[in-house]
Amino acid sequence: MTRTLSASSAALGFALLSGCVYHPPANQLNRYAQSMIGQHLDSVTARFGPEDHQGGSATYPNIGTPQNPRYVHTWSRFGSTQHQRFVQTGTASTGSTLVTVLPAGGGQGAIPIYQQNTAPTGYTTQEGESCYMSFTTDANKTIVNYDLLGGYCDKLFLSGG
Question: How many domains does the chain have?
Fold first, then answer.
């Protein structure tokens, strides 16, 4: 008799490590953006220059209500470095490994225990560096929320790219 133990947790861990798209964390920019909530938008403009499209009701529509208007202001940065990334599309069996052999007993012979092994399948592609930083303001341009989108944000916004 042969018993098979699932190695799904090990395979999942391997797949996550090798299949995920890694972006360096934007810890510093995230802390900065969080600290800007409640501040006037001019503080951000003073640090990063004019936004991508000069904001206000003429450029950006009100995404709130007439009684509680909200406007989104965005800055973007792009780097010149290309990074390879692995895009996982599935997994493939790489065979099995003998894990242990249970001792004989109770009228049965020794029982080998096998683990099924898998590896991620997919392809490698090139990815550029980009980060979008958006602040949502009220009618007085007081920051009420923020969003960071992309990768390499600390590098692109805080270290000059």
Answer: 1
